[in-house]
Amino acid sequence: MKKRLSSILRSMVIGGLVATGVARVLILFSASPVPDPASGRTEPSLFAPAISSNWDYITPTQTWLLVVLAGVTLICVAGWPIAAWMERRADAGANRRILGRQGR
Q: What's the Cα-to-Cα distance from 9 to each of 4, 16, 25, 33, 82, rounded to whole Å?
Protein backbone atom coordinates (compact mmCIF):
# COMPACT_ATOMS: atom_id res chain seq x y z
CA MET A 1 0.00 0.00 0.00
CA LYS A 2 1.37 3.36 -1.01
CA LYS A 3 1.75 5.93 1.75
CA ARG A 4 0.27 9.35 1.10
CA LEU A 5 2.50 12.40 0.97
CA SER A 6 0.51 14.12 3.71
CA SER A 7 1.09 11.14 6.01
CA ILE A 8 4.83 11.25 5.31
CA LEU A 9 4.95 15.01 5.94
CA ARG A 10 3.00 14.61 9.19
CA SER A 11 5.53 12.05 10.39
CA MET A 12 8.39 14.34 9.37
CA VAL A 13 6.84 17.26 11.30
CA ILE A 14 6.50 15.19 14.46
CA GLY A 15 10.00 13.75 14.03
CA GLY A 16 11.44 17.20 13.36
CA LEU A 17 9.87 18.65 16.48
CA VAL A 18 11.22 15.79 18.57
CA ALA A 19 14.69 15.99 16.97
CA THR A 20 14.87 19.77 17.46
CA GLY A 21 13.85 19.42 21.10
CA VAL A 22 16.39 16.68 21.74
CA ALA A 23 19.13 18.74 20.05
CA ARG A 24 18.27 21.78 22.18
CA VAL A 25 18.43 19.72 25.37
CA LEU A 26 21.75 18.15 24.38
CA ILE A 27 23.17 21.57 23.54
CA LEU A 28 22.08 22.94 26.90
CA PHE A 29 23.56 19.93 28.71
CA SER A 30 26.85 20.49 26.92
CA ALA A 31 26.86 24.19 27.83
CA SER A 32 29.74 25.55 29.81
CA PRO A 33 29.48 24.52 33.48
CA VAL A 34 30.85 27.86 34.64
CA PRO A 35 29.17 28.73 37.96
CA ASP A 36 26.84 31.69 38.20
CA PRO A 37 28.86 34.53 39.79
CA ALA A 38 25.96 35.65 42.00
CA SER A 39 25.03 32.30 43.57
CA GLY A 40 27.98 30.02 42.73
CA ARG A 41 25.64 27.36 41.26
CA THR A 42 26.06 25.88 37.78
CA GLU A 43 22.34 25.38 37.10
CA PRO A 44 21.66 28.77 35.51
CA SER A 45 24.46 28.36 32.98
CA LEU A 46 23.33 24.83 32.10
CA PHE A 47 19.56 25.20 31.93
CA ALA A 48 18.99 28.91 31.35
CA PRO A 49 22.09 30.41 29.79
CA ALA A 50 22.15 34.17 29.68
CA ILE A 51 21.62 35.43 26.17
CA SER A 52 24.41 37.82 25.39
CA SER A 53 26.04 39.25 22.33
CA ASN A 54 28.80 36.64 22.24
CA TRP A 55 26.69 33.44 22.49
CA ASP A 56 29.51 31.55 24.23
CA TYR A 57 27.34 28.63 25.27
CA ILE A 58 26.55 27.47 21.71
CA THR A 59 29.02 26.72 18.93
CA PRO A 60 28.50 27.68 15.28
CA THR A 61 28.06 24.01 14.38
CA GLN A 62 25.31 23.64 16.98
CA THR A 63 23.67 26.81 15.67
CA TRP A 64 23.63 25.46 12.11
CA LEU A 65 22.26 22.13 13.33
CA LEU A 66 19.34 23.89 15.01
CA VAL A 67 18.77 26.12 11.98
CA VAL A 68 18.65 23.15 9.60
CA LEU A 69 16.39 21.07 11.87
CA ALA A 70 13.99 23.96 12.46
CA GLY A 71 14.02 24.92 8.76
CA VAL A 72 13.18 21.42 7.52
CA THR A 73 10.45 21.13 10.15
CA LEU A 74 8.91 24.45 9.11
CA ILE A 75 8.98 23.47 5.43
CA CYS A 76 7.18 20.22 6.29
CA VAL A 77 4.64 22.13 8.43
CA ALA A 78 3.86 24.35 5.44
CA GLY A 79 3.68 21.45 2.98
CA TRP A 80 1.54 19.14 5.08
CA PRO A 81 -1.82 20.96 4.76
CA ILE A 82 -1.17 21.69 1.08
CA ALA A 83 -0.50 18.00 0.37
CA ALA A 84 -3.58 16.96 2.37
CA TRP A 85 -5.76 19.46 0.46
CA MET A 86 -4.46 18.25 -2.91
CA GLU A 87 -5.06 14.60 -1.97
CA ARG A 88 -8.62 15.33 -0.87
CA ARG A 89 -9.23 17.19 -4.11
CA ALA A 90 -7.90 14.26 -6.16
CA ASP A 91 -10.01 11.77 -4.16
CA ALA A 92 -13.13 13.88 -4.63
CA GLY A 93 -12.55 13.98 -8.40
CA ALA A 94 -12.09 10.21 -8.61
CA ASN A 95 -15.26 9.45 -6.62
CA ARG A 96 -17.55 11.86 -8.47
CA ARG A 97 -20.78 10.28 -9.72
CA ILE A 98 -22.38 11.26 -12.94
CA LEU A 99 -26.00 12.25 -12.47
CA GLY A 100 -28.56 10.15 -14.24
CA ARG A 101 -29.26 6.50 -14.69
CA GLN A 102 -26.42 4.21 -13.73
CA GLY A 103 -25.64 0.93 -15.44
CA ARG A 104 -27.73 1.36 -18.57
A: 9, 10, 24, 38, 10
